[in-house]
Structure to design on (512 residues):
């Protein structure tokens, strides 16, 4: 018997981007979108076009570039948002508008200050405006989990009559538990008129750690689209993790009467890319994509796996793309091989000049490191691809001194808006000294919220990838830097975060 298709709607670039400090540049979003397309994601929610002109341009750029996935733009249920989303997705081969409004009593009364009748009217109007741009319109009832069932049925009936093709039921606050969420999905499908004319979708947050379980319960009860993100990135505790949904459905074929179109071997590369770009490190024990997900520590387990893998493994590491990061290039590789490899990774550099700079960085790295992996190339490109207007702070040269019994010192030459300045400071360690030196000339007055170092690949010659999270006046940004010298990587990450604070596009959160 052929199985139904379960559509995978990835919202890493929209809900994922709502994680504190995870804001991405247009180029970074495009790189992730290309990886999602390579993974055969059905729908890519590319952003919230009304949030800012930067968000609008990002969605439009992705709509122009992506051919194999549907590109979706989010819009609140008002005319301005919907038209903005419509304009942004117009270039897409297949474009969707996702419009939403809150339907729970608490959201309607306290946040929207609208009556239920006004909410229904706004939802219907939004769907109709959206249909002027595309016939692929999705409607979400925000906070459906705390909405009254009969009112939800009324809103869904109205938007289906207005022409919505996908009905999304979000657990916006991560409040549900699987048995309840499954029942809600089943009851909606049974009671909403014309429910068989639309695709039912679920969108679950992870506040109680049940986002994936709730989504799967909805699938068992009729949902045929799951909204999820790579690594479970997303607002607060995040969203359902794409890798968990896809692998649960695939591994438990005995239970699920659905299959996805996802190429699972692209999961780990996607996870690494998203982690590298956002600075959100994946916890080692994270399902499917964590570094320990396939590591067997206890002797009994190791013995079992060596005798027969399936004694302790329900999935194969290679099926989700572990070990797929083959050695990309080496010291003798030329510019053409470098360019071809970048193209294979979906990376298109903006100009010949950027390509030359990235190639010079690659050669420098190849001198220090025997084997260059895909992740190394992504790190180089992340460092080099930032648009010049956000490169206010740059490192020109650095010298670090660390000796037993002496205070570590950093001497830096920095460029601030094109003007070179020297900075020096001592600190409790060389990284502390480097940050103090930078602050002595930048004077940002920001607070350091997080400093983390991660090895991009294995071996002591690996590049260290550093994330620095800074906060200033309520804004939070993550900066990244990569280098075989972790002090240099740290200084780069700090400067990258300062550049993001400096560029500071103000954006609206869709839930506001
Ligand atoms: O969590 C939520 O309700 C959302 C909607 C915009 C779908 O992200
Ligand atoms: Zn959400």
């Amino acid at each position: 018997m052929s199985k139904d298709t379960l559509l995978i709607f990835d919202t890493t670039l929209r809900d994922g981007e709502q994680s504190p400090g995870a804001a991405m540049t247009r180029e970074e979003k495009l790189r992730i979108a290309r990886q999602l397309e390579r993974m055969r994601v059905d729908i890519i929610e590319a952003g919230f076009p009304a949030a800012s002109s930067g968000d609008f341009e990002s969605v439009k750029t992705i709509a122009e570039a992506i051919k194999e996935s549907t590109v979706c733009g989010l819009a609140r249920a008002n005319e301005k948002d919907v038209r903005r989303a419509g304009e942004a997705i117009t270039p897409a081969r297949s474009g969707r508008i996702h419009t939403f409004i809150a339907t729970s009593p608490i959201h309607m009364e306290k946040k929207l200050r609208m009556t239920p009748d006004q909410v229904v009217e706004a939802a219907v109007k939004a769907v109709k405006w959206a249909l002027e741009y595309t016939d692929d319109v999705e409607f979400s009832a925000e906070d459906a989990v705390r909405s009254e069932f009969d009112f939800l049925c009324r809103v869904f009936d109205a938007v289906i009559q207005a022409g919505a093709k996908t009905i999304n039921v979000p657990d916006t606050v991560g409040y549900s538990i699987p048995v309840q969420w499954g029942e809600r999905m089943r009851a909606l499908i049974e009671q909403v008129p014309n429910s068989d004319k639309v695709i039912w979708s679920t969108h679950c947050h992870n506040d109680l750690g049940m986002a994936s379980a709730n989504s799967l319960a909805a699938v068992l009860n009729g949902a045929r689209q799951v909204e999820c993100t790579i690594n479970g990135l997303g607002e607060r505790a995040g969203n359902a993790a794409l890798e968990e949904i896809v692998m649960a459905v695939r591994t438990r074929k005995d239970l699920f009467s659905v299959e996805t179109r996802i190429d699972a071997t692209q999961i780990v590369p996607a996870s690494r890319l998203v982690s590298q770009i956002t600075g959100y490190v994946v916890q080692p024990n994270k399902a499917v994509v964590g570094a320990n997900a396939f590591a067997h520590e206890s002797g009994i387990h190791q013995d079992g796996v060596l005798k027969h893998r399936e004694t302790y493994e329900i999935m194969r590491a290679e099926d989700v793309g572990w070990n797929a990061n083959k050695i990309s290039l080496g010291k003798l590789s030329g510019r053409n091989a470098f360019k071809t490899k970048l193209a294979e990774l979906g990376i298109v550099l903006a100009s010949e000049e950027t390509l030359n700079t990235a190639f010079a960085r690659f050669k420098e790295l190849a001198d220090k490191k025997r084997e260059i992996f895909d992740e190394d190339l992504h790190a180089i490109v992340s460092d080099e691809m930032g648009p010049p207007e956000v490169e206010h702070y740059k490192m020109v040269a650095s010298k670090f001194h660390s000796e037993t019994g002496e205070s570590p010192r950093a001497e830096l030459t920095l460029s601030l808006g094109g003007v070179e300045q020297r900075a020096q400071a001592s600190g409790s360690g060389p990284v502390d000294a480097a940050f103090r030196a930078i602050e002595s000339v930048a004077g940002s007055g920001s607070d350091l919220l997080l400093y983390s170092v991660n090895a991009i690949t294995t071996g002591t010659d690996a590049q260290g990838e550093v994330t620095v999270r800074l906060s200033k006046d309520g804004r939070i940004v993550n900066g990244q830097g990569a280098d075989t010298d972790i002090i240099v990587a740290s200084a780069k990450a700090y400067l990258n975060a300062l550049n993001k604070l400096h560029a500071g596009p103000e954006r609206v959160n869709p839930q506001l």
Summary: Residues 305 and 312 are 6 Å apart (CA to CA).
